[in-house]
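Backbones bend. Shown next:

***
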Amino acid sequence: MIILDDAARWPRLFQWFGTIPRPEIEEWLRRSRLSIPSELIDLWQATGGGDVFESETILRPMVPSVPNRGFVGDDIESVNAPLAAVGNPHGLYIFQKGAFHSAIRLGDQEFVTLTGDYEVKHRYASLDEWYLRTLRAEFAERYGLDSPKG
């Protein structure tokens, strides 16, 4: 994953919450009745989500090994609660917030960015494509990131 490569190269820009054992993620998915792309599951397993480029947050699933740590609104359930309360008419599950929101479109498992009205603005086939065209595109010049490895 390009985001993990960048985090290894520029660790000061990535403040991860902490690794999550895969069985905890799988139990959370069962309990939440969610189907999430394996790439995002792999990212959560490796990082637990976290703050990226100071202003962006990759939300964390609520599992025992990643306690709240006093931060409000960085867990995926609280951010998605308003959508759940209205029956999630757009079929979205938000996983990133900051300058914009990103979600998984549950019906086809695509990564998407959203407008303020929860309409899909852009679609991405993979987590790498999403990261390259959103966060990295926005912040690479500001933070002096060179071309991704690979």
